[in-house]
Structure formats: structure tokens, C-alpha cells
């Protein structure tokens, strides 16, 4: 597998969506170590963007710069239409940040945590109570609102943390590993919350160590390695960058098997199992072309399966050589 892949820049056809976040040549060093080495990003409004990378790749540094917690050494970036260097207050007014470690105060109740956040946003007591009640209901925390946050489960604390972030009605939210430590049920609940935010028009900048999470949620994914963007695109685009994808046809009729082998190019035969393997990226166009050739020849396979690399394969191929890839995923058609 390749150790690096040129990034893709495809954003889809038609009119481009306005960028909620953009960065050009973003750089940051600590001492003599370069953490971000000129990264470029463009994140459309109302989408989920996932930044993947191994520990130390620079993900949290990127979040801190874009949320104005630290300054960049070079490059330009705009968040919600505001330059992060010249208009940091404008950026802060438009964003919310939920860090990897919960900001919930366990000594007070969930409701009190919400009201404290409302005070920090200088809301009136009446408005603060209204918004707190609405968000507690939205995140299914009304029954626990009067209980100390220390009694909450991990999933409840993460939901409360995100609810507190939404008190200021941000249009852009940075979520730094929001489901770390959660059980599968709580993680799926959080995914539903994130999807609803995007439905409401919020832009989500997500860092995660769960590749399945990025695959499930993200409209666009970038893989960060050694301070540089190794590749970016949709999940399917990234999977097609990695070699090893193919289509397998299985036949029960030996005559149909031989006819298909003669009609198709670049096939690998298994005469004992009556299967043919054809290199493919699994894309719709290639599959349609393959099926058209079979139809033209009057051949019908008993089973068609596609084998594509997953995001684990992509991640390890792009971030280092010490990888023994998983078996490709199969989808029976």
C-alpha cells in the first residue's frame, strides 16, 4: 500500500456551498517541531467534516487554532466569515467547542450547569431558563435535570456537555472526540444528536479516533499525518484510493462461467470454485459497465460480490507502513 496519496479536491457538481470554515497554508510549530505544515481546508456550511489522524498528527492543534484558542504561525483562515487573526471575537460568537474531556461540573445539577452557561452568555434569567429547559428536553435530560451531574452516566454527561455548548446557538461546532469512552448504545445516541444538528443547519467539525464514526457521519474526511493533509474526500472517494478492490462473480453453470471468462477482460479464474475476480474500485459506473457486458453476452452470474477497502485500510495506508490490512469488506449484490 502507498505511504501517501495526493489529496482530492472534489466538492461535487453545481454551485459550491458557502464555506463555514476555510484555511489556506495553516502552519504551527512548537519549538523545533512542525505540527501543522501548511494545511488547506474548505468545509461547506451545514455539513459534517471529520479530521482523522494518529496521535500527535496535529488534529487538536488545528481545532485550537480554528477556535481561536491559540494562534497560527502562518497561513490564513476564516470561520463563519471572520478572519481568525483579525476578528477572533466574531469567530467566538459564532462557534461552540466541546472538548475531548467534559466541561460538566459534577458538583451541581444538570440544570444548574445549563444556567451557568446561560449566565456566561449574558442571557437574561428568563431567557436562560427557557433555553436550558428546551435543550434539556431535546437531549432527553429533563428527568435528570435536578440531579447532580456526578450521578450521570458517561453518555448523559456527553449529551449535557453538548447541550451546554448549544446555549449560545452556535452555527459551527467543534467536537473533539465526542464519543470517546462511550458504550455502543451511547455512541449511537450521540450520532443521532449530531445528525439532527446538521439537519438544523449547524456545521460540525469532528475529530475522532473511531473510523466507523467518520464513515457514518462525515460528508467530507481529511486524513492528517505528520502535519500535512495526506488525502481528503468523501469516505467512498478515500476508499477508492487504496488498491485491492474487486468484484467477484460466482457461477453454478460451468458453461456460463466459461462464457463470462471469455467475455470479460482482466479476470482471475478459479475453475474449481467457478468464480471470476475482476479488479474494480466498486464505483457505480464500473459495476454498470460490468453488468452491461454480461447482459450483452447473455450471461447471468449466480452471485456478485464487491470487495472494497474500508477506512481502516485507508487510515493505515496513509499514516504509516506498519500495517497488516484487514480483510476487504464484501457486499453481496
Provide a descriptive summary of the structure in words.
By secondary structure, the protein is an alpha/beta fold. The protein has 2 domains: 158 residues, Rossmann fold (3-Layer(aba) Sandwich), CATH 3.40.50.300; 92 residues, Alpha-Beta Plaits. It is built from 11 helices and 15 strands. The strands form 3 sheets. The protein has a 6-stranded mixed sheet, sandwiched between helices. A hairpin with a 2-residue loop joins strand 1 and strand 2. Helix 3 packs across helix 4, helix 3 runs parallel beside helix 5 and helix 5 runs parallel beside helix 6. The longest helix has 16 residues. The two termini are 27 Å apart. The N terminus and C terminus are likely disordered.
Ends: how far apart? 27 Å
Q: Please tell me how large the radius of gyration is.
A: 24 Å
Task: Going across the biggest sheet, name each strand in turn.
Answer: 6-7-8-3-9-10
The CATH topology of the largest domain is Rossmann fold
Averaged pLDDT, please? Answer: 86
H-E string: EEEHEEHEHHHEHEHEEHEHEEHEHE
Name the beta content range. 25-35%
Shape: elongated
CATH top level of the largest domain? Alpha Beta
CATH homologous superfamily assignment of the largest domain: P-loop containing nucleotide triphosphate hydrolases
Helix content: 25-40%
Give the low-confidence spans.
1-15, 322-333
Number of strands: 15
